[in-house]
Amino acid sequence: MSPRTGLEESSVLKALKQSSLNGDGVFTKKCHEWFEHELGVEKVLLTTSCTHALEICAMLLNIREGDEVIIPSYTFVSTANAFVLRGAKIIFVDIRPDTMNIDETKIEQAITEKTKAIVPVHYAGVSCEMDIIMSIANKHNLFVVEDAAQGIRSSYKGRPLGTIGHLGTFSFHDTKNVTSGGEGGLLIINHKPFINRAEVIREKGTDRNSFLKGYVDKYSWVDIGSSYLLGELGAAYLYGQLKGIDLIHAKRCDSWNEYHKNLIKLQEIGAISLPTIPKNLEHNGHMFYIKTKSLHVRTKLIEFLKLNNVQSAFHYVPLHSSKAGLKYGVFNGIDRYTTKESKRLVRLPMYYGISNSQISYISEKISCFYNASN
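^ that's the sequence the OP posted. Answer follows.
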């Protein structure tokens, strides 16, 4: 459910009164300034989606046929697709069962002479172990692209997610903490040599940005690229959301804590597992999930909750076991946790505006399910 704080409408109405609703207008610039200040980075670029931001990353890294890119198998298809589109072979590695993030101890053994990049995915807005990942990347001269689609307002040791790797991406899809009214994304550029080319790729491979800044007297086609500019209505909606982000963030974290408080007893008796937040990390309350003991129990729990008007769901099917995953990638090492843990996970309703009474009802029904099972 898309968050609405009431601050979006005035921005959208102002955008409608502009002479143009094309991308890179007034509200795009406002969003860029907000993120560059908030994240403490030199350059960000709004995009039409996080998927497209990842595609730009693949172009910036000059991914070609035969290159290898390391990612977790437990992620959304966009993490892989962006690099497969450029000809890369995807190397899947196992996850950690505590955070569902890529297991940083399994990355180095997956590196070959063909490896070009590591793409950690910050699942549920909880950071991967970035110091170790960056150390591995530096040792092997690899690029790191943070897929922080779910990570706005989360941090690792005080550093905002998306600002640690060479490149980072956010999603503003309707399901995320902050949205641009449907689809939208952000490219975060932390490696200065990428800045100029990123602007070209985002502008259909032209140097139009240089033309608008007065650096050239006309613009032309100079590189590969595509149409990745978010329209002004989306940027205006997003800017309204950003003005209310403190409220959104606080409410989601409160809801996350309420779930945890209500369900901790079930974890203490061994019925379920709750999310783990490692030390020195700040999460954003993006998602609350529980883990059952087996796929069979999960299926029964989801059915039970549905009968009680609670819409719960599982999440990703591991990519390495999918039709396209088998075609475009390979799993390195042993699948110790990816498949097993994915079959246990149940996402509970979580959105800006969910009330404590609703959370109590959901938690009570989960308790009733386990009480009836004993």
